[in-house]
Specification:
Elements lengths: L1 H24 L5 H6 L13 H29 L8 H12 L20
């Protein structure tokens, strides 16, 4: 199962990085207004509207892959053997033995008693 989790985690990270790159490459809605008045090159590798469709569809596919990987990692993260306990349960067993004992006859010093006299 460790190999499956590693593969899913790798696919998730690669899809996240690719999604970040595609989102940064895309133009905003205000970028088309400048191209309409002649500033900037309106011609592109994908044509006039082809790049927006291609980039947005690819981003949607990568987002779907990212969410499916996230759900798979959450599923594999919740799979535990029935015999293993929680980390906190193990710490609760060790903590009382490690705690120092304070004698009941000695009262804790107040704040005024801790100030050194001149």
């Amino acid at each position: 199962m460790s190999i499956a989790v590693t593969i899913i985690l790798t696919v998730q990270m690669l899809s996240a990085l690719a999604m970040i790159g595609l989102i940064l490459v895309q133009h905003g809605k205000g970028a088309d207004m400048g191209a309409a008045f002649g500033s900037g090159g309106s011609g592109s590798l994908f044509g006039a509207s082809g790049s927006a469709n291609f980039l947005s569809r690819t981003t949607a596919v990568l987002a779907t892959v990212f969410f499916v990987c996230t759900l798979a990692l959450a599923y594999f993260g919740n799979l535990r053997p029935a015999s293993s306990g929680s980390v906190l349960e193990g710490a609760a067993v060790v903590a009382p033995a490690a705690a120092p004992e304070v004698p009941a006859t000695v009262a804790p010093a107040s704040g005024a008693a801790q100030i050194p006299a001149k």
